[in-house]
Specification:
Length: about 575
């Protein structure tokens, strides 16, 4: 188990804006930064990153995250693994409690460690990279293979990696740089064995959750404002060798919703450069449809003579592949409009196909513009196209998605409790002196006061956090996921900082906060007892509830006097 001191150092050092920039495209908005929320699918940025608070919060789904929680979510890893990743990034020494170093990590961490060791043990590919038209291009390609860690599987490998024997191995990294899995390509051009073998799905690797080369492409994707999506590992390496460093690839699987969410966190423009064979062309259309429906702008990169990017690089050179990537892209919908316009006017299927793709667009203005483009290309009046579009099923005709679930770790909303707990969290290190001159922390003073006056916190998570703070636990040293999420939620919802409370004013302010909680507690209890009275079925039960109600009314009166506010006793009592 990691020590409290390690957690505190990581939370204090890992800046949310720096960590988020590895996964999201951030835009300046006043003192803060905004991005598409990583916790739910959206088209307009509502995730606000506050460098001052070192917290990110979505004002749509209400999820909050510090650096650790963001890494956990984006990498799909456990709490401890996320802390270790950040510690490595910021050069923080990881300390563990006694005896914990010999404890077995969970399966995912064990797999990642084994993957890292296997990747480091790969042999240089040498001549297996293949030939190119020019020696300079060959050196660039070899350098790309080296930088991606591609190598030959050694003969003495553990049993788990023996399927990669006699193959050229491509390590597949997460966006954060961890080796999640591998793809192995056979060395001979023909044979009974399959062309590729891949790591099986595991807690560390899911094909549908990862894009090959995206770890290396993130910075270029942001600077270029687009991602170039390929189908093969060698295609990605060819583009990177040609200086097109915003290329990433599918790991032998279809484009998934998780892939699209991953892309949209970085950019909303995608260039498709998939295989030119019939299966690849069909996959291009499928990918384009899913991306358009998700609000992405889609381009096509059409390579000459039915070649894939690796073949263009080797036969025509890196300069030609770079030129095609820069100048040969075509807007997907415009390309489809021209295809439909080239068909006979009687080919209504071609027109309907394009109209179905146009209907995928979420923006009414974009739909209007595309209908005008199709009308201009085909000569069919816009109104006719619009009427035809209404008859075509679209994404808007599908059943509405289920409502978003309540954010993980969030507790039932009890405003009075949350306000008092937030105050204790903010001032967890402030000290009181009791009548005997003994030191007592502010959270301990509050906890004892609530206990002595029979004012318990109703929410178990609230009560547990207050107890830990009262016992001197630093909030940044709390590893429990639920409590960490609660702390983030409280911090993210705090009002703007108005400065520290002077020591001489702290007792009065704290007592006032406790009274305000007591007032809300009394409100809640009276309402609960009144509701119970309405459903009471026996005289004894009614007498008991009426006595409890009298006690709460008395408590309410006393609190009102303390606060110099109006009593909450209902009129007519």
């Amino acid at each position: 188990m990691l020590t409290d001191d390690t957690l505190r150092k990581v939370r204090e050092t890992a800046r949310i804006d720096e960590v988020a920039s590895a996964y999201l495209t951030l835009h300046r908005s006043g003192k803060d930064l905004v991005a598409l929320c990583p916790f739910h699918d959206e088209r307009h940025p509502s995730f606000r990153v506050s460098p001052a608070k070192n917290i990110g919060k979505c004002f749509s789904c209400a999820e909050a995250a510090d650096s650790i929680r963001l890494v956990r979510h984006m990498e799909g890893c456990g709490f401890e693994e996320a802390v270790r990743l950040l510690a490595r990034k910021y050069g923080i020494e990881v300390e563990e409690t006694a005896g914990a170093r010999d404890e077995r990590r969970d399966e995912r961490e064990a797999l990642l460690r084994a993957n890292e060791a296997f990747a480091h043990g790969l042999l240089p590919p040498g001549g297996l990279v293949g030939t190119t038209r020019a020696e300079e291009d060959g050196e660039r390609l070899r350098e790309a293979y080296r930088s991606f860690g591609v190598g030959l599987c050694p003969p003495d490998v553990p049993k788990a990696f023996r399927p990669f024997l006699n193959r050229l191995v491509f390590p597949i990294r997460t966006t954060g740089g961890q080796v999640a899995g591998f793809a192995g390509r056979r060395l001979t051009p023909a044979g009974k064995e399959s062309k590729y073998v891949n790591s099986p799905d595991s807690p560390a690797y899911h094909k549908g959750h990862i894009l090959y080369g995206l770890h290396e492409a993130v910075k270029a994707v942001r600077s270029e404002g687009r991602v170039l999506l390929c189908e093969g590992y060698k295609d990605v390496l060819a583009y990177h060798a040609a200086g097109i460093r915003y290329a990433a690839g599918l790991c032998g699987t279809a484009l998934t919703e998780e892939h699209i969410r991953m892309i949209r966190r970085l950019t909303q423009r995608v260039t498709l450069s998939l295989d030119p064979d019939p299966a690849g062309r069909l996959n291009t259309v499928r990918c384009a449809h899913r991306l358009l429906a998700a609000g992405c702008a889609v381009d096509l990169l059409l390579l000459p003579d039915g070649m894939d990017p690796d073949e263009v690089y080797r036969q025509k050179g890196s300069d030609e592949l770079a030129r095609l990537a820069q100048d040969g892209t075509r807007d997907y919908l415009s390309y489809r409009v021209r295809q439909a316009a080239s068909r006979p006017r009687t080919d209504t299927a071609a027109i309907s196909g394009v109209l179905g793709e146009i209907k995928l667009l979420a923006s009414p203005l974009a739909v209007y513009n595309r209908l005008g483009e199709l009308s201009g290309a085909t000569g069919i009046p816009v109104e006719v196209l619009r009427q035809e579009t209404r008859a075509i099923p679209g994404p808007g005709d599908a059943p509405s998605p289920a409502p978003a679930k309540e954010p993980a770790g969030d507790t039932p909303v009890l405003p009075g409790e949350r306000a008092l707990l937030r105050f204790c969290l903010t001032h967890h290190d402030r000290i009181f002196y009791d009548t005997d001159g003994n030191k007592i922390s502010l959270p301990a003073w509050v906890r004892d006061g609530l206990t002595d006056n029979d004012l318990p916190l109703k929410d178990p998570g609230h009560a547990r956090l207050l107890h830990l703070l009262a016992e001197g636990k630093h909030p940044d040293g709390i590893a429990d996921e639920g409590l960490s999420a609660l702390i983030l939620s409280l911090r993210a919802s705090a009002p703007p900082d108005t400065g520290p409370i002077p020591a001489e004013g702290l007792p009065a302010e704290t007592y006032s906060r406790v009274l305000l909680y007591a007032e809300s507690f009394a409100h809640r209890e009276i309402a609960h007892i009144l509701e119970s009275l309405r459903t009471a079925t026996t005289p004894d039960e009614r007498l008991r509830l009426q006595a409890a109600l009298e006690d709460r009314f008395a408590q309410s009166d006393q609190i009102a006097k303390e606060l110099k506010s109006q009593s909450i006793i209902p009129e007519g009592r």
